[in-house]
Amino acid sequence: MPKHISWCLDCGVPLLQKVCGICGSVGIDVRLTGLADPRPAFEGDIKHIDEGLRNSFDVGIHEVGLDGVPIIVNRIPYMDEAFEVVVGGAIIAHVFFDLYILKWKLKPFRWFCKILLDKGLLPSIKLNCKPKSKGVIEHLSNFSSLDRGYLALIDRDGCVIGLAEADDRHIYILKTWGREECEKPIIRRRSLDDILKANVREVEMARSRACKFTVKMKERFHSSYLTLAYSGGKDSLATLSIALEAGLDPILIFNDTGLELPETVDNVHRVADRFSLDILEASAGDSFWSYLDIYGPPARDYRWCCKLCKLIPMNRLYRRVGEALSFIGQRRFESRRRSRSGSVGRNKLLPNVIYCAPINDWTMLHVWLYLRRVKLDSYANPLYREGFDRIGCYLCPYCNVAEFREVERLHEELWHRWMKYIDAWASKHSYNQVYVERHLWRWVNIPSKIANSFSINRPTRIDIDDKIGYSRMRLCYGKAIKLSIPKWFDLSLMDTSCYIYGVDFKSKNGLAIASYDDSRIYVNMDRGEATIISRDNGWRILLKILIRPIFCTKCGLCIDVCPSKALSLSNKFLFERRVCTRCGLCMRVCPSITIGFRFLSKRIESACSL
Ligand code: SF4
Ligand code: SF4
Ligand code: SF4
Ligand SMILES: [Zn+2]
């Protein structure tokens, strides 16, 4: 995977390839951090850079000569929103949303340190010897005349060789550079059209590859219904344009999770009108809010809403559509998980849909330059100009605090509804203000770095523990697990799950036994108790069988996905055993199994050391 872009120093533009399309020079390499998904900085990003500069150095972007120059930003891993800033062929700074002070900050790199030094905005220390790569500067540890903040480390010749940060007592080295002369980036005023001119060959090649791939997929799966998943984001807009260029006439599919920002919904209709395309809408309606009281806030490691607000409506829609070939705007640079996905495949939870991703190999820079090339950049969702890096559900636990701030700025009433819920939920479970302000509900198991940084003494969400009955679970003897079960426990649903997993099941007068290899589960309805005895990993299957009736919310997803129509629900679940093929799909999609099993199995593993 390429971890760099190039930069033409003569023309002052970023390059997707080595050679500049304007002057023919070979560009210099700029090594990027993380997944390396660079893009042009828009107005919102410039505002964040400006805020970072003001909060860190009390100076605005125009005072350091950065307004109007081409800036490339690249998202980097950090506790919250953070990106590196590339100007003139050099990474000049990291801009990040500081979770401690809840403000944007800017950490300058070598050349930018020099600019700030020259303007008297950055203090410095002269060092006689090469600094260690990281750590405290020992002989200056008691240096007391410094304010808190960044300071440049310079050598005898005044060359910047490092960046440090002072707190009340110590000076910590953050970064060091070699002693060679500071290279000054060559900054020129350039427009997006100039950048496109320098990259037009690579953009055309990417466009041609994507069109050929699209045509090939259409021919390969010619009998399928053609759809295009349009989310209101730039990637699906580029994919749509490629599909139209390739001669396709797809139906747009839009899944309204009920958590979309109004700009996104508007964009979907605007783009459909522009190309006179039909839209099929899947809608989750208000289901997020109805399930919220049952499940609590969604989290990065507890994404119940994806199944209920995305999978259920999409599944219902595709059941109407039938076998479909769906073009999607997925790109492998978006996330680590996506970097492992192929360009074509079958979604195992939507089995009648074959997806293909024509722009899987594109970076964001490819996408924006392509949209400019085909004059569709004005049709992109306006939220990108406001500083959003990605578009999706406005309260998604994958968002950073900085993104939530933008949602609040643009749509106060939507945000207010969510925060009213979070405030009530936090006060019910005695979470403090630090927890609420940093939106730590975004994790069930808070990453240790964040939990330690904010002295969170309960890094696991207790509302989940209450729900899964952890407090009622105890180790009986050997490898036995005893759990409480509710009065309304549905033995017939347990029977169904046993049949699907090939587990023996017998029941009589409120007593039931299920056996799988050397493991057993005993259910006693009178006592409201279930006991699992296991000598091996069989308890995992048995636990899923037990969890399904306990946590079932009657969402209906298992009924929707069953290819044999073996399941139905009136007062209780009905199961037609003779048509069931034991494909297991109903078990795989069940949100209650996923959610209940993930947490309960962890608790059992640690409690019983299985
Ligand atoms: S909020 Fe996030 S996790 Fe939930 S449905 Fe939306 S994208 Fe998925
Ligand atoms: S068993 Fe699972 S998928 Fe089926 S209705 Fe219950 S919660 Fe939904
Ligand atoms: S056919 Fe598959 S989805 Fe339907 S009930 Fe049987 S195992 Fe579940
Ligand atoms: Zn050039």
Write up what this structure looks like.
Helices cover 35% and strands 21% of the residues. With 610 residues, the protein is an alpha+beta fold. The chain folds into four domains: 4-176, Roll (Sulfate adenylyltransferase); 192-384, Rossmann fold, CATH 3.40.50; 401-456, no CATH class; 468-608, no CATH class. Strand 24 and strand 25 (529-533) form a beta hairpin. The protein is globular and about 90 Å long. The relative contact order is 0.08. The model is unreliable at 470-477 (pLDDT under 50). The protein binds iron/sulfur cluster (SF4) (3 copies) and zinc ion. The site of one iron/sulfur cluster (SF4) has 12 residues, from helix 7.
Characteristic key phrases:
six-stranded antiparallel β-sheet, 21% strand, alpha+beta, 610 residues, six-stranded mixed β-sheet, 4 domains, binds zinc ion, Sulfate adenylyltransferase, binds iron/sulfur cluster, 19 helices, Rossmann fold
